[in-house]
Automatic annotation (TrEMBL):
One of its GO terms (molecular function) is thiol oxidase activity. This is ERO1-like protein beta isoform X1. InterPro entries: Ero1, ERO1-like_sf. The lineage of its organism: Eukaryota, Metazoa, Chordata, Craniata, Vertebrata. Belongs to the EROs family. GO terms for cellular component: endoplasmic reticulum lumen; endoplasmic reticulum membrane.
């Protein structure tokens, strides 16, 4: 990932303006032609999603994410990678962020470097890059004393409910609450072999790749040869619907994360004050059809497909929250009531969307084969959630785990339609329950997708204006 520390967005003279115009001239096919029309495997068109998201649901989601119930997420950033020895930032061991213990929460987390790291750094640039990645990837764990006391009360309330399952990670002594508003998802400098290995493991070992396909599915793969990106996707058409959906979900999640980084990029840093904003060059590198050999627009279409999947899950789970027994508990009764009212309004919007993905078309074959495929689907996704503990940047790991858990919760909802329909109005159900952690992840993950689509529209408008 290009650092681009010194790039400014305006006021840099004619040379920069010319350079920007040259960059923009390569993008009209992306912003006007290729990311339009009807999506594969569903009957929804992209323009309808854009209008629904940007003008109807995005503003409400943004307000919801600022509510206390949804802004604090409990996460364990200390779990070791279960698949390989962690290599940390910049692919160098010991170049990582070490969060402070809960009893000594500072303003921010500061990482130290061992002598091994100093010996491993071959040049000043490598050291500077890694230092920058540490600073940008650090978790701001600042919490007020009132918040800490409230969390104890929230946990006590959550524990008293009859849940479908318990998440061991929430109860781990290493798990800590993180204020998502203080730790926005954006460019951190995390790159190199560590980031490549994570995505490579996700694509190559967990997506349903046919043995006849030799080329890496991982967009970060260093060698692409002469393959045309669009023709490469013909292998996907030969898979069953369920396996196509799985790949599109992962690709869509990857595209969404990349969009967040492009839209909230470190443009310049003057006197220790960073300036964040959209990076056109980085956007082009990841999504332009020419630079990606036709794959960029497909990645963006997969983003829209993932949006539809999670949107469908929200519409399906609405009856769970519409019951009077369900509270979004923080201890502030007035705020809790307002938060639930806002959430129910969002659910009403999701149910009003006219072109939902039909999940009933999945796992619809013979019962034995469908059950086996569903279990394989579930295990593959569960494995991907474990891979998130191998991410070497704390902030990237935080948002990776949250968005993965959010998608996992959405899949849990779609596979539990009968249980949701049988929910009693005034008592807990053993058939289907959501923990506070799952609820926070579900809405924040969908909020990230909603933001991605909004940011994509911003890029289109910016490019159109500059042209």
């Amino acid at each position: 990932m290009s650092l681009g520390f010194r790039r400014a967005v305006s006021g840099q003279g004619a040379a920069v303006a010319v350079q920007l115009l040259v960059t923009l001239s390569f993008l009209p096919s992306l912003v006007k032609t290729q990311v339009t029309g009807v999506l594969d495997d569903c009957l929804c068109d992209i323009d309808s999603i854009d209008n629904f998201n940007n003008y109807k649901i995005f503003p409400k989601l943004k307000k919801l994410q600022e509510r206390d119930y949804f802004r604090y997420y409990k996460v364990n950033l200390k779990r070791p990678c279960p698949f390989w020895a962690e290599d940390g930032h910049c692919s160098i061991k010991d170049c990582h962020v070490e969060p402070c213990p809960e009893s000594k929460i500072p303003v921010g987390i500061k990482a130290g470097h061992s002598n091994k790291y100093l010996q491993a750094a071959n040049n000043t640039k490598e050291l500077e890059d890694c230092e920058q990645a540490n600073k940008l990837g650090a978790i701001n764990s600042t919490l007020s004393n009132e918040s800490k006391e409230a969390f104890i009360d929230w946990a006590r309330y959550d524990d008293s409910q009859d849940h479908f399952c318990e998440l061991d990670d929430e109860r781990s002594p290493a798990a800590q609450y993180v204020d998502l508003l203080l730790n926005p998802e954006r460019y951190t400098g995390y790159k190199g072999s560590s980031a490549w290995r994570v995505w490579n493991s996700i694509y190559e070992e967990n997506c349903f790749k046919p043995r006849s396909v030799y080329r890496p599915l991982n967009p970060l793969a260093p060698s692409r040869g002469e393959d045309d990106g669009e023709s490469f996707y013909t292998w996907l058409e030969g898979l069953c619907l369920e396996k196509r959906v799985f790949y599109k979900l992962i690709s869509g999640l990857h595209a969404s994360i990349n969009l967040h980084l492009c839209a909230n990029y470190l443009l310049e840093e003057t006197w220790g004050k960073p300036s964040w904003g959209p990076n056109i060059k980085e956007f082009k590198r990841r999504f332009d059809p020419v630079e990606t050999k036709g794959e960029g627009p497909r990645r963006l279409k997969n983003l829209y497909f993932l949006y539809l999947i999670e949107l469908r899950a929200l519409s399906k789970v609405a009856p769970y929250f519409e019951r009077s027994i369900v509270d979004l508990y923080t201890g502030n009764l007035e705020e809790d009531a307002d938060t639930k009212t806002l959430l129910l309004s969002i659910f009403q919007d999701t149910k009003s969307f006219p072109m939902h993905f039909d999940e009933k078309s999945m796992f619809a074959g013979d019962k034995k084969g469908a059950k086996s495929l569903k279990e394989e689907f579930r295990l593959h996704f569960k494995n991907i959630s474990r891979i998130m503990d191998c991410v070497g940047c704390d902030k990237c790991r935080l948002w990776g785990k949250l968005q993965t858990q959010g998608l996992g919760t959405a899949l849990k909802i779609l596979f539990s339609e009968k249980e949701i329909q049988k929910l009693p109005e005034n008592s807990p159900s053993k058939g289907f329950q959501l923990t506070r952690q799952e609820i926070v992840a579900l809405l924040n993950a969908f909020g990230r997708l909603s933001t991605s689509i909004k940011e994509l529209q911003n890029f289109k408008a910016l490019l159109q204006h500059k042209r």
